Amino acid sequence: MSTIAMAGLAAALGFLLGAATTRPALRRLRRELAAAVQQAHHDPLTGLPNRTGATRLFIRFAEAGRSLTVTLIDLNDFKAVNDTYGHDAGDALLVAAADRLSHTAAHHGGVAARLAGDEFLLLLPADDHDHLHPPAAALVALTPPITVTGADGTRATLTPHASAGVTYFNGLDGTLAGHLRQADIALYHAKQRRDHIANYHPGMHMPPPIQRRRRLRDHQAHRTVTRRQVQS
């Protein structure tokens, strides 16, 4: 739902609060407003916070002065799953991955979000001794096999694997967008490693052509989210 539509609902709620209105109508409008806010901040497929919701959560952590590990997770070979078994199978894999990442994040006192496609985000309280341990645990938690049904009705068992780029937020400086750029650079390096995880440091770089492709991907993902909210 668009920001304008949400503002309209909020205005209508305010009007009803000040007018003589039946309680059932007021309760219905409250439910509609709550549903609109939920839709604007959550991914409809997995139920996880989306990029907008993740940004709000990051701001809350920052306002509390909480240091975090910001981890970008990308499922390996996800396109091949869609191409081989169809989008329903791909969606089933995404839902399973979201559930596993959410449980792992909660276990470590953090949250998981889905940013776009097969890209997930973990915001986890920072471990002063080992920033990579919780993200590495999340990668392990993804690996139990999952059975999916292909477009032709055949069933297949898949073993999910992923890569993770990790960066550190000190609780004071920076935005989620800036830390996501760092985590994305680390993710690029993680995909070149056997253990599929990398911690960002200032000497890391990403080839310019890949940077351009990823900026285009992020721009398209933002437009898609905005279009869906407007259509809703």
Furnish the topology, listing elements before pairings.
Elements: H1 3-17, H2 23-41, H3 51-63, E1 68-75, H4 78-85, H5 87-107, E2 111-116, E3 119-125, H6 133-141, E4 146-149, E5 155-158, E6 162-169, H7 176-190, E7 197-199, H8 208-231
Parallel strand pairs: 6-7
Antiparallel strand pairs: 1-3, 1-6, 2-3, 4-5
Helix pairs in contact: 1-2, 4-5, 5-6
Q: Strand order, biggest sheet?
A: 2-3-1-6-7
Largest sheet: 5 strands, mixed
% residues in beta strands: 15-25%
Q: Termini distance?
A: 4 Å
- How confident overall, as mean pLDDT? 83
Low-pLDDT segments: 228-232
CATH class of the largest domain: Alpha Beta
Helix content: 40-55%
- The count of β-strands is 7
Find the CATH superfamily of the largest domain.
Reverse transcriptase/Diguanylate cyclase domain
Query: What is the SS-derived class?
Result: alpha+beta
Helical segment count: 8
Rg measurement, Å: 20 Å
CATH-scheme architecture of the largest domain = 2-Layer Sandwich
String of helices and strands: HHHEHHEEHEEEHEH
Number of domains: 2
Overall spatial form: globular
Briefly note the CATH topology name of the largest domain: Alpha-Beta Plaits
Protein name: Diguanylate cyclase (GGDEF)-like protein
Pfam families: GGDEF
InterPro entries: Biofilm_reg_signaling, GGDEF_dom, Nucleotide_cyclase, Rev_trsase/Diguanyl_cyclase
Domain GGDEF: 66-202
Description:
The structure is a single chain. With 232 residues, the protein is α+β, with helices and mostly antiparallel strands. The protein has two domains: 1-41, no CATH class; 45-231, Alpha-Beta Plaits (2-Layer Sandwich). It has eight helices and seven strands; from the N terminus they run H-H-H-E-H-H-E-E-H-E-E-E-H-E-H. The strands form two sheets. Strands 2-3-1-6-7 form a five-stranded mixed beta sheet, with helices on both faces. Strands 4-5 form a two-stranded antiparallel ribbon. It is globular and about 65 Å long. Mean pLDDT is 83; it is low at 228-232.
